[in-house]
Amino acid sequence: MSFFSALLRSLQCAYTEVQQLLAVPGAKALAVVMLMPFTGIYQSMVTSGALNSLVGSIGLGVVVFGGPAAVSIVFAKLSTSRVQGIKVICLIAAVQLPAAAFFAAVATASQAALWVEGFSLLTVVVLWVIAFDIINGSTPSCVPSLLTIGAVLTSLMALNLAVSLVTGEVTVILPGEGILMWMWTVLTTEWVIIGRSLAAALSGLLFVIFSVVFRPTLLEYVNLRRFKMGSAIALCLIGLDVAGFVANSPTLTVVALSLGLAVEADGNGGDL
To answer: What is the mean pLDDT of the chain?
Structure first.
């Protein structure tokens, strides 16, 4: 009985700690921005082949999970100490890392039933819309929100899977018919993609941690508008890579150069 009492107390303490972290100014906004890609945008990227290389995956993660939107929130809204800020990011990581592995496995396993070429083109359009949003701070009224775009992509993927099931192109494995073996096969055969997905999520998390730790210095010396421009260019390159127009796009290099060019030696940075 004492074991269950101790377990209950531990869960209550953990719940209280989570509530306190989410109460930090800017914490919820940061969590929404860093987890929003999982509403459908990230799955479409994985299906379209955005994780074809480790370096490209790291660049993708920095831009998608820890890009200008997350850094802007850290600069403008996350008003807390370094330690508390890192705790907030670790809380987000507890959701982001498992989600990155799960959605990468599901998206990769679903490729056989999806119209990959069509989703590649849709992914390019979505990435260019995100790049436009990064540069301008908003999209035109005629363009739906990123959350709506993600929901549409998820619906299209589900519809594509449903059509494949109806036409007999794929079959559903029910519990008791080898689903555990199928899951094990996916994990063992697609571990490279899953690993790259984890690397992408981790690179985004580390970049946001970097911005939290060095927030005062970055606010003074980094021009965020320049970094936004470089990140937008990197997203466009990812889109061209997914569409097959560019092979092995230098995404990470562009991000690193944009961050370097955003540094202002005279200390006039922090332009949000």
So the answer is: 75
